[in-house]
Write a structure and sequence with these properties.
This protein is an alpha+beta fold. The protein is built from 10 helices and 22 strands. The chain binds S-adenosylmethionine. S-adenosylmethionine binds next to helix 6, strand 16 and helix 8. Belongs to the class I-like SAM-binding methyltransferase superfamily. RNA M5U methyltransferase family.
């Protein structure tokens, strides 16, 4: 391929041919690919080139010359600047089509051409769904400011309405910001590694309304912290307030030190009628409405009769295993984070569930041991992180041979890879994408495999 003579900051007219998996418009100049922010297939746009790499480049739309009928207009331009909701310029039904299509593309690429991919299960109201916010804080023009990063940068764009977060969380962030301003607490200055508050994290339990606030600070000492604590706790919905200290020059949000300033250690929420305790570091699904739909679908696909030995691998705080425990003989959860396993044990007790145990460890290590000891599993639920299943786990599964595997995936590319590796031993059922993250390019899907 001859690289065309393109330069950063050059303005150029582009015809958009496709949408990348990240939700960017794809345009070709000769054979060279440009990924274009805020551009949809079928559109012709004036764009400015923002980066040129060896094999591809990036551009940003300046204005749209020929517009797609699928474009949404009433979305604030701020969301395009920040990338907080990278698909918000695309009509929602087209977002659902895009997600289904992305699964089809990944399956076709790996040779799984016969697998049926159902329509994406979308939300009735696809905004304001997130139950958790981690909002960066900076000192701008002498004021502590909350907002979100401009795309591909750490420049803060001030923002009060985050579009996809629970509006009560947005309100709480403003309240906390104003209390910190009142006591002249400084926002973080990333360049000079000075100032104090780096992030405000707020979680709000959808079914109970309880809120947890975590202030992430560069330093331990915050002046007037008692007054600040009292004023934040004046909101009766805030049940838990933590201070986290992170003095490192890092993109990781939390530091090691987590101190409870006021209230209880956790908040409680409900999923499918069970209560769960959520600590500041717990993994907890961010879309409460769709989580219930996803879990119901996964549990249906497991076709439990009450006689099965079930493994809930990658179990987090135990939510999937505990949701299905009344339909199984016994459930074992496997999770690598010790605190999450403690939460899961606690959650089993809290809900009076006696046929579930949780073990700390890597799924691949624990099931390798099980395979060596000829232990049997009837149904395996897996819900791994984006990188999917370890190769050694696939080998163990071929020995253990669960009758059914239900795979919940947040990355269709690794899902396709893993299913292809299991396809000689397992019949692959139909795949259903479930839209857990509307307005973003993230794709969750669920599929059941049956032993041949
Ligand atoms: C996508 S989350 C799913 C959690 C839970 N099933 C839920 O629905 O809330 C993945 C979980 O796997 C855990 N994890 C990551 N790698 C693991 C591994 N190799 N073995 C076991 N757990 C792992 C993470 O800590 C996280 O809790």
């Amino acid at each position: 391929m001859q690289k065309p003579n393109l330069k950063k900051n050059q303005k150029i007219e582009l015809t958009i041919e496709d949408l990348s998996y990240e939700g960017k418009g794809v345009a070709k100049v000769d054979d060279f690919t440009l990924f274009v922010d805020n551009a949809l297939p079928g559109e012709v746009v004036n764009a400015v080139i923002t980066r040129i790499n060896k094999n591809f480049g990036f551009a940003r739309t300046l204005d749209v010359i020929k517009e797609s009928p699928d474009r949404v207009h009433d979305i604030d331009a701020i969301y395009a600047q920040t990338g907080i909701a990278p698909l918000s310029h695309l009509k929602y039904d087209k977002q659902l089509e895009f997600k289904r299509n992305q699964v089809v593309v990944d399956f076709n690429k790996i040779g799984l051409k016969d697998v049926v991919v159902n329509e994406t299960l979308g939300m009735e109201s696809p905004f304001n769904y997130r139950n958790k916010a981690q909002v960066p804080v900076r000192q701008i023009n002498g004021k502590l400011t909350t907002g979100f990063y401009r795309r591909r940068s750490h420049d803060l764009v001030p923002m009060e309405n985050f579009l996809i977060q629970d509006p009560k969380i947005d309100e709480e962030i403003i309240k906390v910001r104003d209390i910190l301003r009142k006591y002249k607490v400084r926002g973080f200055d990333e360049e000079n590694q000075k100032g104090q508050i780096r992030t405000i994290m707020v979680r709000r339990a959808y079914f109970t309304g309880e809120m947890m606030v975590v202030l992430v600070s560069r330093t331990r000492d915050i002046s007037h912290y008692k007054d600040i604590t009292n004023e934040i706790m004046d909101n009766p919905d805030v049940k838990s307030l933590y201070l986290n200290v992170n003095s490192k020059n890092t993109n990781v949000i939390f530091g090691q030190e987590m101190t409870l300033l006021a209230g209880k250690k956790y908040i409680d929420d409900k999923i499918l009628g069970h209560t769960y305790r959520i600590s500041p570091r717990s993994f907890y699904q961010v879309n409460p409405v769709q989580t219930q739909n996803l879990y119901k679908m996964a549990i249906d696909k497991a076709e439990l009769t009450g006689k099965e030995e079930v493994v809930d691998a990658y179990s987090g705080i135990g939510t999937i295993g505990l949701s299905l425990a009344d339909k199984a003989k016994h459930v074992t959860g496997i999770e690598v984070i010790e605190d999450a396993v403690k939460d899961a044990d606690q959650n089993a007790k809290l809900n009076g569930i006696e046929n579930a145990d949780f073990v700390v460890g890597k799924t691949e290590d624990v099931l390798d041991e099980w395979a060596k000891n000829n232990m049997s599993v009837d149904v395996l639920m897996v819900d791994p992180p984006r990188k999917g299943l370890a190769n050694s786990l696939i080998d163990s599964l071929k020995n253990i041979q669960p009758k059914k595997i239900v795979y919940i995936s947040c990355n269709p590319a690794t899902l396709a890879r893993d299913l292809s590796l299991l396809s000689d031993t397992y019949e692959i059922g139909d795949v259903t994408p479930v839209d857990m993250f509307p307005m973003t390019n993230h794709i969750e899907s669920v599929v059941a495999l049956t032993l041949k």
